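Figure caption, in words: inputs first, then the predicted bound structure.
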Amino acid sequence: DVGGVKISREDVVRDDPTNNVPDNIFSKLGVQLHRRDEHPLGILKNAIYEYFDTNYSNKFEKFDDLCPIVSVKENFDDVLVPEDHVSRSYNDTYYVDPQTVLRCHTSAHQAELLRSGHTHFLVTGDVYRRDSIDSTHYPVFHQMEGFRVFSPEDWEASGMDATLFAATDLKKCLEGLASHLFGAVEMRWVDTYFPFTNPSFELEIYFKENWLEVLGCGVTEQEILKRNGKPNNVAWAFGLGLERLAMVLFDIPDIRLFWSNDERFTSQFSKGQLGVKFKPFSKFPPCYKDMSFWISESFTENNLCEVVRGIAGDLVEEVQLIDNFTNKKGMTSHCYRIAYRSMERSLTDEEINDLQWKVREQVQDKLNVVLR
Ligand code: PHE
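Bound structure (phenylalanine present):
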């Protein structure tokens, strides 16, 4: 049951080359962690709602139950993602069939909501991306999209041109949000590119001696407004990653924990309590396994990670390329180190050897590589 619609496994996972949704991803559809008021992601979502409600007198409409299965048109075309953009590839995105994907960002809903006449909205949802494996990357995560449309009277009164007016308002809004969530925190704006905004920015916050990217945003491309019934307006949009923010706010060390049903995790959070620091239950020892193979042209790290995740599930913590060389014959060898670690218990040698054995088998069968 996803966003009010019944979805069966056969609708999403098929033995068909145009479908690359594995079972472990299908099982995440409809879980909607962001709708649990006692879950760090739900607590964070509600805190952001509160900021918008207070500062914009409840003007922002909220959507957190839109179906994550969307058309290629909604996910890419409607937000002007070029035909040849990498995000459209089967290596980066989960395709249900050639016209249907698991949304890779909440921007997939911008056009539809604009067309239905909404001018101030927040869309929260689970998003899906094929990616590498480490403590901050998981193939399902959560985003919140914000969108605000302005009318000519808004910017005319300011004396600024429309784009500058929107960009200024956007930065002020998001700096206010960052202070609402973090209190005093160092932040910086970085210019960037998105197909759907211009100018585009990223907001980074300084955390544990690193600049951490927490959101992307910008002034909406005029073409999107024109196509969706708002030719005389300007707008801004942002998309923020809830896990990224929640890991910082709650001191959550590993992104897999968001999916944990272990009471030692879930019992530490309660409704309305933003930023209560997570106390790790004792960290269990990791176990490292290396594997080397000759790659072929079609090899990608995302495909490797999917095989490993398919076998080890949340027992895999990191997959890291530790050696890479090409010999005189032009053959390229990769060595990957896989870190296995449970968040909940000690793993036995036997169990890990068994996983690693299956990984080796499937890597050889599915990825067209030669184990060394
Ligand atoms: N959709 C972008 C992403 O997922 C974020 C974004 C949203 C950027 C809205 C600009 C405007 O990375």
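Residues 162-182 form the longest helix (21 residues).
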